[in-house]
Amino acid sequence: MMPQREAKIPTGAPSAARRLRRPLAAFLRRFGLSVAFVLAGLLGGLGYALFAPTTYTATAFVLVVENGNGESGPAAVSFAQAYGRLAPLPETLANSSIPLPPHEAGDTRDHIQASTSPDTPLIRLAGSARTPRAAAAFANAAADALVRYGTLHRADTGVRVALMTLAQPPAEPSSPNLPLGVAAGTGSGVLLAGLSAAVMSGRRGGGRRAPARRAAVPAQTGAGRVEVRS
Question: Which residue windows are transmembrane per the record (predicted)?
Fold first, then answer.
């Protein structure tokens, strides 16, 4: 019967692991909190981008022009600013012939946002909803309401509101945005990591300060002279 050979256990792997363990432990003691903040921010942004409710946004445009020549003068720009503030109000939306999608009472500002330019009498009406058709319906209802409201007050204002483009159901959601969500979460984590590193650095710097020297105490010598000892 042939004697069995004993299996040789490599000794290099444990020693290499021990050599790596010390610098890794030092790295984690110094930067572990910062790394945790960055990872938490990244995972938070990723989780929001993956599980946040989907929102679609559609856009319609209306233009304010003067009655006389149909041009866009200073008066049209001023009234465009005013009409932009009135667009999301329920009192203005009541003039629309396009029915609004089902929504909770009083939250039209969450579904309709109006924006204007200081240089041109153009009003951008953005509708937001959970479905593409509802988003377009909010934007078009706001545009139709603003045109009808402007027509009712045309004699008083001297301007009219004309529809430029109706909103179309968007093909893709406007939020959540995966790259943007991850970037925002990671940026927040980096900011917290930097603040924590600054705080910890300040604490370590304060602990390393040399102790204050003791106050000098005068001492009487044998010859009657006063000697200052520190």
Answer: 27-51, 178-199
DSSP state of 61: E
CB proximity list for 61: less than 8 A, separation 6 or greater = 122, 123, 124, 125, 143, 163, 164, 165
Place of tokens 């008083």: 156
pLDDT of residue 140: 96
Q: How far is the C-alpha of 35 from the C-alpha of 24, rounded, in Å?
A: 13
Question: Is the model's pLDDT at 153 over the cut of 70?
Answer: yes
| DSSP states along 9-23 | PPSHHHHHHHHHHHH
Bridge partners for 35 per DSSP? none
Q: How far apart are CA 122 and CA 164, in angstroms?
A: 9
User: What one-character DSSP code corresponds to residue 171?
Assistant: S
Here the tokens at position 19 are 């050599």
Q: Are 58 and 126 in contact (CB under 8 A)?
A: yes
The pLDDT value given to residue 188: 77
